Structure formats: structure tokens, C-alpha cells
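call fold target=ATP synthase complex subunit 8
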Amino acid sequence: MPQLNPSPWFFIMLTSWLTYSLIIQPKILSFVTTNPPSNKTPAAPSTTPWTWPWT
């Protein structure tokens, strides 16, 4: 049963996981900026009720 033999795919999985974790992820995170927290209170939108023409 070749599914039980981890030799062909385990090394590929481990290499790609390490490549992503150690090389690609820090480069991507350097471009992503987080939104700073805001002290403003959220404004409630002013809504008007809809008048249905058949009522």
C-alpha cells in the first residue's frame, strides 16, 4: 500500500511548509498594515422608514 509510505510526500510537505513559514510569510506580513484602533464612537445611521405604495 503506497499510501502508508511517507517517503515520497513527507519531505515535499515539510519543505514547502518550512519555505512558507520562514521565507514567504515574513515577506507578505511586511506589506500588510493593520488598522490602528480608533477612539471615535460609531455614528448611528439616520434611517427613514420606507413607505410601501400598496399600504
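return ok
Helices lie at 7-31. The chain is about 45% helix and 0% strand.
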